[in-house]
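Box 3.1 A note on notation
Throughout this textbook, protein chains are presented in two layers. The first layer is the amino acid sequence; the second is a token string describing backbone geometry. Keep the layers aligned when reading.
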Amino acid sequence: TLGVVIGSLVAATSMGVLAQGQGAVEVEGFANRYFTDVQRDFAHDEGNLFGASVGYYLTDDVELALSYGEYHDLRGEGAAGSKNIKGNLTDLKALYHFGQPGVGLRPYVSGGVGHQSIGDANKGGRDTSTLAIVGGGAKYYFTEMLYARAGVEALYNIDKGDTEWQAGVGVGLNFGGSTRQVAQVTEPAPEPVPAPAPVVEEAPQVVRVELDVKFDFDKAAVKQESYGDIKNLADFMNQYPQTSTTVEGHTDSVGTDAYNQKLSERRANAVRDVLVNQYGVGADRVNSVGYGESRPVA
């Protein structure tokens, strides 16, 4: 009987909230290259913006960030060419991060508003403007806390109707998200698997085949005329290899019981030898037994 038991393996996994998840705080220092509009009276139409930002993760993907930076290396044209123009930029942006929190790359897109205050190269005083800011970039988290960022932003001057650009890099640290409590979710217990139906082993069928194998008086050698019947039995057994057989030997009632018992055993073994040695039936599938005078043929 071959029983097959089929089971199921249920694997449960859980992931804790990583540092840049909901509730985390990021602090970053950045350096941007600032490309000014041609309408400004600057010698090279570009400069640098150095600053810092702090952000708070409203969800695992959405961050609200406040930044402040100061302009450097801006100089006027002509007579004002030696004048070092001062200025600053304060902005509030929302960033949406793609990918899963954790170590690795997280691209983002951003949008927000800013207030720019920058010196006038020729007239003196300061120009103040309200900016609409959109951008994009990527952060790479070397660990759950330490990351580097690269990005580019377009700054649309709502007051003057022109657009300026800045591209830069930053390095930051992320704190706090991993301490957020995670609600425990209990998975429903799997429904019990019904026990397999019992395997009922069919009782082997027993078929009795009588071979009329004749022997000379007081002999145990199989006569040639009986080989055809024995071969038919061998062919059947070779066609159905799950079958087995028992060869029974008998004698008549002439002689002593002990002698007839021995003679019936030799005759049964003789037929068995023909099945095994001449017709190739497996020896483990053929048994022989002698009955002597207990079941005489005459």
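The longest strand covers residues 104-119. The longest helix spans residues 257-278.
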